[in-house]
Amino acid sequence: MKKQGFLRGSAVLFIMVAVTKGLGLIYKIPLTAMLGGSGMSCYAGAFAVFTPVFAAAAAGAPNSMSRLVSEQLALGCVRNAVRIKRTAIGLFALLSAALTAAMILTSQTLAEKVIMIPQARWAVIGISLSLIPASVMNVYRGWAEGIGSMTPTASSEIAETVCKLIFGISGAYAVMRYAEDSFGKYHGCFGVYCTDLRAAHIAAAPYAAAAAAAGVSAASFAACVFIIFRTRKLSREAAADVGNFVPANIGKRTAAFRLMTFAAPSALTAVIATLAGTADLLTIPHGLKRAISADGQLFAFLEAYSIAADDRAGFVYGSYTGLALTIFGLLPTFTAMLGKSALPSLTAACAKHDRAAATSLVSSMFLLSAVIALPGGLGVVILSKDLLTLFFAGRTAEISVCESPLSILGLAVIFMGIALPCLTALQACSRQVEAMLITMFGTALKLILNIILIPVPQLNISGAAISTAISQAAICLAAVTALIRGTGAELRCVKKLFLPTLPALLCSCTVILTQNATDSLFAEISQRLGVLLSIAAGSIICGISFGLLCISPKNEIFELFFKKKAKNP
After folding, report:
1. Distances from the Cα of 309 to the Cαs of 117, 303, 429, in angstroms?
2. What's the rounded Cα separation, in Å, for the pair 440 and 537?
């Protein structure tokens, strides 16, 4: 079996991220349109309590499996590798089963005390069922990566996303159709009398959110079955390549101990990374309730959309997480891949204490990150309402709530887009603990600022966006400083972060002018076309200005991706 090299493996994963993000956006848009702010508050709240549990149960499985399996196969100990896989399946399945039971038994408490939406209980139960198949699937992903193939990981991710799109949307749609039929017959649904169809949709939204969450669990199960069959041939080929069936000399206890030794640090880092969403869950609904209590007219316009006063905090939280944060997270996901691409070469430079090579690589990574983050972040600042309308047309109330915070989050896109690849690249100089501490500091800062800012009536939900921007700025500054210090790169490479500033400003001006022109030329029905034209015009001007100012990232792209290929044919 021919193992995938770093370049091919990275390319496979990069394509996977692009495909899954695109499919995820396709999934999120109609789901948000069906659930609205009320349903999305249940859905997002369930995921917020689920994500740290999932990180603790399964996030450490792929890395620990990959490390141990590749080590045993290199020694020719296929049976040891198989024993580790079987032990991992039992260990992580048992752990995830215990956590699933705990989530189901405490679902009412989590919904009332943590999410602060009692109806979110069913969504918590629905999503908790995905823990066991997701944990087993992560074990098989680590098994395939240890053998030397990233394809099963990528294909199972895509399969899971496709199934989530099908099952999740179908489940939510079925519940909403049931609500409409019930309203037509009885003027009520799920035990609630409804004055109009919109009220029926609001009453059904928590149950539709639960159906969508259950669809995610069904997708995890389908993807788990897929990867089990997908890796069978791969396992046989790997065993045939090794050819030396050394008797297993690792007991189950030893295998379990080694698994947990490697998995625990990865799981801890993953849990910390999820705490930002948990911080929002713990502070936004409570802070919004305090803000609304201080100013009774805050979000009063939601009354026209049949949102009761007691439900406004949950509706605003669901709108913010479902709409604003969805757009906010798109660009940083792609810049994070730059850190992964630069990691092997940067590791070699640090090991050889080659300061010139480290400076060159860090400079290239800084420039490419800024080329994506600066224009993209400023674009979100300028086009916040237009982007919301582009992706979530028809959700007028939700867009009104999210317009201001998304504009602020555009600044956070810039900082996060630069920080993520730096945090990844810190592994090259053995600064994983420092990366974890930086992330922990940023999360703590965000939590504190949320508590202070959100209850202020004049800020309300925008306070959450401000805290995100400030915390990401702090993380960015700390990560850049740590990377330069850790790799020994020269300080002059920092200026690369500011080189795209003028092209980004020219891009922003072009977007504004084009958007103003299209607003007067196109009818309301063609607003989406106007937004797309504005983005296209801004991108063209940005690209031209890069070339004219000799800031083209072409050389950096070749240095990061293609130059290594020439060295390692």
Report:
1. 14, 7, 53
2. 39
Pairing of strands 192-193, 188-189: antiparallel
* Domain assignment present for 529: yes
- Mean residue pLDDT of the chain comes to 80
The answer for 190, left when phi > 0, alpha when psi is -120 to 50, beta otherwise, is left
CB 285 within 8 A of CB 314: yes
Amino acid at 461: I
What is the C-alpha separation between 538 and 523, in angstroms, rounded?
21
Q: What tokens does 454 get? A: 């959100």
- Give how many domains the chain has, as a whole number: 1
Identify whether 63 is part of a domain: no
CB 85 within 8 A of CB 65: yes
* Residue at 342 is within a domain: yes
In angstroms, what is the C-alpha Rg of the chain? 25
Coil/strand/helix, residue 474: helix
Distance CA 381, CA 377 (A): 6
Domain that holds residue 453: 329-569
Residue 46 has pLDDT above 70, yes or no: yes
H or E, element range at 193 = strand 192-193
> 117 near 37, Cβ under 8 Å?
no
Whether pLDDT at 133 is above 90: yes
- Positive/negative CA dihedral, 167, 170, 174, 176: positive
Biggest alpha carbon–alpha carbon distance for the chain: 76
SS (H, E, C) 7-53: HHHHHHHHHHHHHHHHHHHHHHHHHHHHHHHHHHHHHHHHHHHHHHH
Classify residue 43: in a domain, yes or no: no
Please state, in angstroms and rounded to a whole number, the distance separating the CA atoms of residues 313 and 455. 11
pLDDT value, residue 566: 41
Name the DSSP letter for residue 3. P
- Structure pTM? 0.69
For residues 246, 150, 134, 63, the Cα torsion angle rounded to the nearest 10 degrees is 60
Tell me how far apart the alpha carbons of residues 13 and 15 are, in angstroms, rounded to a whole number.
5
> Which amino acid is it at 135?
S
Count of CB atoms within 10 A of residue 245's CB?
11
